[in-house]
Specification:
Strand order of the largest sheet of chain B: 15-14-29-28-27-16-17
Helix content of chain A: 40-55%
Largest sheet of chain A: 5 strands, mixed
Number of strands of chain B: 38
Number of helices of chain B: 29
Number of helices of chain A: 8
Distance between the termini of chain B: 37 Å
Radius of gyration of chain B: 29 Å
Oligomer: heterodimer
Structural class of chain B: alpha/beta
Strand content of chain A: 5-15%
Chain lengths: 160, 959
C-alpha cells in the first residue's frame, strides 16, 4: 500500500481518503471519479491504479471508464469552462457561427485554454436544451438562445 | 493431413435440459433453451455472418452483421443476443438483411487498410471472409476521410493513427487493423480473467488499450494468447505467423509443460511449427492456454540443443561426439562392467516426468528387467510422492479425485500451498471464472499469492501461516469442524469407518489443536481459522486444490492425510464440485507415477513384493524380478558417496538443479563411474556425466501424457526428431545393446503392453484414444469410458480411512544465526528448472530469480529493492537480487528456482518427508545480508559448467 501511495505522487493520500469514503456505494466508480475531479480538477493518471486496487479492478477497467466520459479530464482546465453545444438542433440554429465567434473572442480552439488560464473552450453534444438552441454552458450554468451578445457577456464574465 | 478447422458456433453452448424447436431458413432444429439463434443456425449448418461473436465468450451484439428477421417480430434483431423461442421462424438471408450487412461492411472497410495480399492474416481473416460473405463490391464512402489507417493524411500527421505495438515477444498489436469488436477485451476478461484490456475512448475514438494506454509488455497482460486467438483480423497476430506465413496442416497434441495437460493444435508448415493453438475440444483446457504452452516452444529448435551422442572418460575432459552405436555399446559395456565389479545393485536409473508414459514404462522396464534390480525412481520423489502415499492410505488410490470441469460446480475452494495463477494458469483461469460467478475462496499460504486479491476475485479468508505449520492449521480446521458439529455424519457412517472417525475426532478435538492454541506458532489468527472451517464445511460443494506447498515438507504425507480427513469429514468426495485435487507440477508426473517409476511399485501402484503382480510382468518380460524395493534418489546418492552405487541412467531430469542440497547431489554424481544423461540440453546434471544421449521434444514423438486429473492425452509427432530418435527408441536401443530382446515399432505397442499388464489401463489403446479424444483412468471393464470423478459409490480401498495427524515441528528451525524462513515457488513465465523456458523469449518477463523480502526485514538490514544480497543457510550460500514486497510476511523470504546461476538448492537442506523422502524445499532457515554479487560457490560453479560443456572440435557451447 505504501508503495502504491507513493507512486500516486502527491495525490495518493487524499485520493485514498476519497476512495475509501465512497467505495461502499453501489457502483462506486463514477462517484469516486467525480469526487477526485472535484478535488484536483482532473483525474491524475497516478490515481487510476489506486482506484483499481481499492475497488479490486484492473487498471485497464478504470482507464476504460475514465476515457469513455469526455467530462473526466486528464489535465486541469482553466478557471472557467465554456461548453458550446455542437449537436444537430443547435447546429441547425446557427451554433457554427457561435463557435466561430467564441474562437475569435478567446483566441483559442476547442479543447484549448486561454494563455491566462481563465477559460477552457469545449464542445458538448446536447445539453438537452434543443428548444432554446443554440445552447451553451458556463461552469455548470446553462444558457439558451446564445447569440453574439450572450456569448460576449459570458466570455466577459469568465475573463473577469 | 490438413489443417484442423474448428467450428465457431458464435456463442457459448447452453446446458439447459429443456429443448426448443424452431425453424431457420426452412429447416427445423431443436436446441437447448437459452441457445442463441446464431448458435442454433450454425448447428443447423447455416452460418450467419458475424464479426464480434465467437463461442469462447458471451454474446455482445456490437458488430451489427449477424442480424436476422423473425416472423411476427419487428426489426432485425442480432442473432447472437436473441435466444431461441419455441416455434420461432427465422430468416437469415433476405433482401433487407443483405442491404444492411453490405452497408455495415462498407463502413468497416472504409476505415481498414486494403493490404490483404501482404497482410499476415491473409487466408485466416474473418473480416476478409465476411466481406466475401456479404458480397461487398464497392465502398461508397471512399478511404479519404478520418481514419485510423494511415500515419499521415493530406501531408499532415494523423492524430488517430497509432503505431504497431511490438513489445510482446510473441505477438503484435496493430491498431490500424482493429475493427473494435471487443473480442480481445472480452476474451481477456471472460476466458483468462486478467482484465488487462479495455476499450478506451468512445465512438470513432474507441481503441483497444492494454492497461492505462500502455504497451502490452508493460501492461497487466500475462500473454496467455486468448486475445490473439479471439481477434478476427490481423490486429493481434503471432509474430511466428508474420515471419513464416499461414500453416497448412495441423495435429492435436498435448502441452509438455505443467500438469494441467492442455490440448493444442500444433499448426505446421512442412516440418516447421507455425503456432500452437489451444484446442476447444481439449477437455482439460477447453480452448484456453497460457504463455508457456501457447508460445514458449522455441527451445525445441534452440541452438543449445545437443543432437549427437557424446562420451568422455572423465568429467574434466571435453566431450567427444560419437555415433549412436558407439554410445550404446559404451553404456552397455560400462553398466555390465560396473555390475560385474560392484554387484547387481550398483546401477540404477531415473525416469522422467517430462517424457511420455510409454517412455517412462520402458525406462523402468529396462531397470527392472535389464539391470535386474529395482533402483528406479522419478522426480515425483521431490514433488508429489507424499500425495501418492497420503491419498493411497486414505482413499486407496494416489491420484486426484476430480476432473478440471468439476470446478464449475464448486461453491467453496480451498487452495493450499499452490499458486495456480503462476503454476497452473489455465486451471487458475477456470477457477477464477467460477469465483467470479460467486464461489468462495480460502487460501492457506504463507505468501499473499495473486488469487488472494486480483481483479474481481478476493479470497474470503487468507490464512498466512508460518512455513512448516500446515499440519497444525489443517488439524485446527478439523478441530472446529468436529467440535462445532459441522461434520457430515451420514456420509461418514456410509463411506468411512465410524470407529476410526471417532478416534480421529477425539484426537482433533483435544484442546491443543484448537485455533486459539495453534495460533501461537502458526501465526494464523484463530478467528480466521474458525471462519474458514465453517465456510468450507457448510458453504456447499467444497473442493480442495493443493500443490507443492503441501508436499515438500518434513510432514508432507501427514498434510495430505489431513486434507483427506477434512474432505471425508465434510462429505466432500465422490461427486462433481468437491474432492481433493493435487495440482501436479509436470506434464506427465501423474503418468510417471502410474507407470511404476517408484522403487517399490510396478505399474498401477502394485507393490513389488506382490507375487501375483510380479508374475504378470515376469511372464511377458521373460525374466525373474527382484522382489525387494530398490533405492530412492537420495539413497542412490548416499550409496554413491559410500562407494556402492556407480552408474545411473537419467532420462529427462536435472537432479543437480531440482533436487535438494546441491552439494550432496554433486558429490554423489562425482563419485559414480558412469553417469548417463539423456536430455535435450547439456543440463546441470550433465556437468557430471560421462555419456550424453540427446533427447527429443514432445513435438518429435508419439505417445501419451497423463495430467493431474488422470487424463490420458495423446502426444502426436509433428516433426522428425532432430537428434535422429524419439526417446523411447533411444531407451529401446540401449536395452538391445544390453542384450534385451525388445522389438517395439511404435509407442502404441508399448501402450498395448501397459494395458495388458495394468488393470487401471486395461481399456486404453491408441485406437480408443483416437475415437474419444482422451480418457481418465481407471479405464477398464468396470469403467469403460474412464472415470472423470473417483470414489463415486465408495472408496477404492473400501472404507475411507481417517488418520491422526500429529503436528511435529520440522527440525529446520530459525535461530539467531538464521532468523528468517525461506520458502520457494515458481512464476508464470518460467517453468521448473527453466531448461526450456530460459531458452525462449519468456525471459522478457523473468530474466533472473529474485528474493522477495518484507520491507521490515529489508530495512533492518539496510537492503534496498534490486540490491544484491547474500542468502545463507546451514547448507550453503548463494546470492541474488532483492525484491522488496509485502506479499511475504515479516520473517519469511521467498524465491523461485528457475535459473541455474542462482542455485537456490545450494541453500535447501536434506530434511525430507518422513514417509517418502520428499525434500523439505518449502522451509529453510536463512539469513540475508548485503552483498556485492555472486558468491565464490556461484563463480566456481559457473567455471565448472563452462569447462564441462566443452565439446572437442566445437566452439564452446554458450548457455
Amino acid at each position: 500500500m505504501n508503495m502504491r501511495m507513493s507512486a500516486a505522487g502527491g495525490f495518493g493520500e487524499r485520493s485514498l481518503e476519497i476512495i475509501r469514503e465512497l467505495k461502499h456505494l453501489e457502483g462506486p466508480m463514477l462517484p469516486i471519479l467525480h469526487a477526485i475531479q472535484d478535488e484536483f480538477g482532473y483525474i491524475p493518471e497516478e490515481v487510476k491504479p489506486l482506484i483499481a486496487s481499492e475497488l479490486n479492478l484492473s487498471r485497464a477497467e478504470v482507464h476504460g471508464v475514465v476515457t469513455f466520459y469526455h467530462d473526466f479530464r486528464s489535465h486541469s482546465a482553466g478557471r472557467h469552462v465554456l461548453k458550446l453545444c455542437r449537436a444537430e438542433a443547435c447546429q441547425a440554429m446557427g451554433s457554427d457561427q457561435v463557435a466561430d465567434r467564441a474562437r475569435q473572442l478567446l483566441g483559442i480552439d476547442f479543447h484549448q485554454t486561454t494563455l491566462d488560464g481563465a477559460v477552457t473552450l469545449e464542445p458538448v453534444f446536447c445539453l438537452g436544451l434543443c428548444a432554446c438552441a443554440p445552447a451553451a454552458m458556463l461552469d455548470g450554468d446553462v444558457y439558451g438562445r446564445v447569440d453574439d451578445q450572450v456569448l460576449s457577456e459570458m466570455v466577459a464574465e469568465a475573463r473577469r | 493431413m490438413s489443417l484442423i478447422h474448428e467450428i465457431d458456433y458464435g456463442t457459448p453452448a447452453s446446458w439447459s435440459e429443456a429443448q426448443v424447436t424452431l425453424t431457420i431458413d426452412g429447416r427445423a432444429i431443436t436446441v437447448p433453451e437459452g441457445t442463441s439463434i446464431m448458435r442454433a443456425s450454425m448447428e443447423a449448418g447455416i452460418q450467419v455472418p458475424k464479426l464480434c461473436a465467437t463461442d469462447m465468450v458471451d454474446a455482445f451484439g456490437s458488430c451489427r452483421l449477424c442480424l436476422v428477421e423473425i416472423e411476427g417480430r419487428n426489426g432485425t434483431p442480432a442473432s447472437c443476443t436473441t435466444p431461441v423461442m419455441p416455434g420461432m421462424v427465422v430468416h437469415t438471408q433476405t433482401g433487407r438483411l443483405k442491404d444492411i450487412r453490405r452497408g455495415v461492411m462498407e463502413l468497416y472497410i472504409s476505415d481498414h487498410p486494403l493490404d490483404c495480399l501482404t497482410c499476415a492474416a491473409n487466408g485466416d481473416c474473418e473480416l476478409q471472409d465476411m466481406a466475401g460473405a456479404v458480397g461487398l463490391r464497392d465502398v461508397r464512402y471512399g478511404y479519404e476521410g478520418d481514419n485510423h489507417v494511415r500515419a499521415r493524411t493530406h501531408g499532415e500527421a494523423n492524430a488517430q493513427w497509432m503505431p504497431k505495438d511490438e513489445s510482446n515477444p510473441y505477438f503484435t498489436y496493430d491498431p490500424s487493423k482493429c475493427i473494435v469488436c471487443s473480442r480481445c477485451v472480452r476474451a481477456c476478461e471472460e476466458v483468462q480473467g486478467t482484465f488487462a484490456l479495455t476499450i478506451e475512448g468512445r465512438g470513432f475514438d474507441s481503441r483497444v488499450s492494454p492497461g492505462v494506454h500502455e504497451n502490452f509488455l508493460e501492461s497487466e497482460c500475462v500473454s496467455c494468447g486468448a486475445c490473439v486467438q479471439a481477434c478476427p483480423t490481423a490486429t493481434l497476430t503471432e509474430k511466428s505467423v508474420i515471419s513464416i506465413g499461414q500453416p497448412e496442416h495441423s495435429a492435436v497434441t498435448t502441452c509438455a509443460y505443467c500438469g494441467v495437460g492442455c490440448s493444442f493444435k500444433a499448426e505446421m508448415r512442412g516440418e516447421e511449427l507455425v503456432r500452437m493453438v489451444p484446442w476447444k475440444d481439449g477437455q482439460a483446457n477447453r480452448g484456453h492456454s497460457c504463455v508457456k504452452g501457447r508460445f514458449a516452444y522455441g527451445y525445441a529448435t534452440h541452438r543449445d540443443r545437443i543432437l549427437n551422442p557424446m562420451i568422455r572418460e572423465k568429467i574434466s575432459d571435453p566431450w567427444r561426439e560419437v555415433t549412436w552405436e558407439e554410445a550404446f555399446s559404451h553404456v552397455a559395456s560400462e553398466f555390465r562392467r560396473i555390475q560385474y565389479q560392484y554387484g547387481r545393485e550398483s546401477i540404477g536409473g531415473i525416469t522422467s516426468s517430462r517424457c511420455t508414459n510409454e517412455e517412462t514404462y520402458l525406462v523402468q522396464k529396462l531397470i527392472r528387467a535389464g539391470f535386474g534390480n529395482n533402483n528406479v525412481d522419478t522426480c515425483a520423489r521431490v514433488c508429489h510422492s507424499p500425495t501418492g502415499y497420503g491419498l493411497g492410505q486414505a482413499f486407496g488410490t494416489s491420484a486426484g479425485t476430480q476432473n478440471f470441469d468439476s470446478v464449475e460446480h464448486t461453491d467453496v475452494v480451498i487452495v493450499i500451498g499452490a499458486n495456480p495463477t503462476d503454476g497452473h494458469p489455465v486451471f487458475a483461469s477456470r477457477l477464477k471464472k467460477r469465483l467470479r460467478q460467486g464461489a468462495k475462496l480460502i487460501v492457506i499460504d504463507p505468501r499473499r499469492i495473486d488469487l488472494v486479491k486480483t481483479p474481481h476475485v478476493e479470497a474470503s479468508y487468507h490464512l498466512p501461516l508460518q512455513p512448516g505449520t500446515n499440519v497444525a492449521v489443517l488439524t485446527a480446521l478439523a478441530h472446529v469442524i468436529v467440535t462445532e458439529g459441522l461434520f457430515d455424519e451420514a456420509f461418514i457412517r456410509e463411506r468411512c469407518d465410524w470407529s476410526e472417525f471417532e478416534d480421529w475426532a477425539s484426537f482433533v478435538a483435544e484442546a491443543q489443536h484448537s485455533p486459539e492454541e495453534t495460533e501461537k506458532f502458526t501465526g494464523v489468527p484463530a478467528e480466521l481459522v474458525r471462519g474458514a472451517a465453517r465456510l468450507y464445511a457448510r458453504g456447499g460443494n467444497g473442493a480442495i486444490y493443493y500443490g507443492l506447498g503441501v508436499t515438500e515438507h518434513s510432514q508432507g504425507s501427514t498434510t495430505v492425510m489431513a486434507i483427506a480427513n477434512l474432505a471425508m469429514a465434510t462429505g466432500n468426495l465422490g461427486r462433481p464440485g468437491v474432492g481433493v485435487n493435487p495440482l501436479r507440477g509436470q506434464n506427465n508426473v501423474q503418468g510417471a507415477c502410474d507407470m511404476g517409476s517408484f522403487p517399490h511399485e510396478l505399474p498401477g501402484y502394485r507393490h513389488i513384493s506382490d507375487d501375483a503382480t510380479r508374475d504378470v510382468f515376469e511372464k511377458i518380460w521373460g525374466v525373474t524380478l527382484n522382489s525387494e524395493p530398490g533405492l530412492r534418489i537420495p539413497n542412490m546418492l548416499d550409496a554413491a558417496v559410500e562407494g556402492t552405487f556407480k552408474g545411473i541412467y537419467i532420462q529427462g531430469e536435472d537432479i543437480l538443479q531440482s533436487d535438494p542440497d546441491t552439494k550432496h547431489v554433486s558429490a554423489g554424481l562425482a563419485a559414480m563411474e558412469c553417469v548417463v544423461v539423456h536430455d535435450l540440453f547439456l543440463n546441470e546434471t550433465a556437468n557430471y556425466a560421462h555419456v550424453f544421449l540427446p533427447g527429443s521434444t514432445f513435438l518429435e514423438k508419439d505417445g501419451t501424457f497423463t495430467n493431474a486429473e488422470r487424463r490420458i492425452n495423446r502426444v502426436r509427432k509433428v516433426m522428425s526428431p532432430k537428434n535422429g530418435f524419439a526417446d523411447w527408441e533411444v531407451t529401446q536401443k540401449l536395452a538391445q545393446a544390453m542384450g534385451l530382446n525388445w522389438t517395439y515399432e511404435h509407442p502404441s505397442q508399448i501402450m498395448d503392453e501397459i494395458a495388458s499388464t495394468t488393470p487401471s489401463f486395461a481399456g486404453v489403446s491408441y485406437d480408443y484414444l483416437e475415437k474419444i479424444g482422451s480418457v481418465q483412468w481407471p479405464c477398464n471393464e468396470t469403467y469403460p469410458v474412464g472415470s472423470p470423478i473417483m470414489h463415486v459409490d465408495g472408496f477404492v480401498r473400501g472404507r475411507g480411512k481417517f488418520i491422526r495427524t500429529e503436528y511435529v515441528a520440522t527440525d529446520e528451525r530459525t535461530g539467531p544465526r538464521f532468523p528468517l524462513l525461506l520458502t520457494t515457488g515458481r512464476i508464470l513465465s518460467q517453468y521448473n528448472v527453466g531448461a526450456q523456458t530460459r531458452r525462449t523469449d519468456n525471459v522478457a518477463w523473468h530474466g533472473e530469480d529474485r528474493l522477495e523480502v518484507h520491507p521490515h526485514d529489508a530495512e533492518q538490514r539496510g537492503i534496498k529493492d534490486g540490491d544484491w544480497i547474500k542468502l545463507a543457510s546451514r547448507s550453503g550460500d548463494t546470492s541474488l537480487r532483492a525484491l522488496i514486497t509485502d506479499r511475504v510476511a515479516p520473517g519469511v523470504v521467498y524465491t523461485t528456482f528457475h535459473h541455474p546461476d542462482t542455485q537456490a538448492n545450494v541453500i535447501t537442506t536434506d530434511f525430507s518427508d518422513w514417509a517418502t523422502n520428499c525434500p523439505e524445499y518449502k522451509v529453510t532457515a536463512v539469513q540475508i545480508s548485503p552483498s556485492n554479487g555472486p558468491t565464490e560457490w556461484q563463480e566456481d560453479y559457473t567455471e565448472l559448467s563452462r569447462l564441462s560443456r566443452r565439446i572437442a572440435g566445437k566452439m564452446e557451447a554458450a548457455e
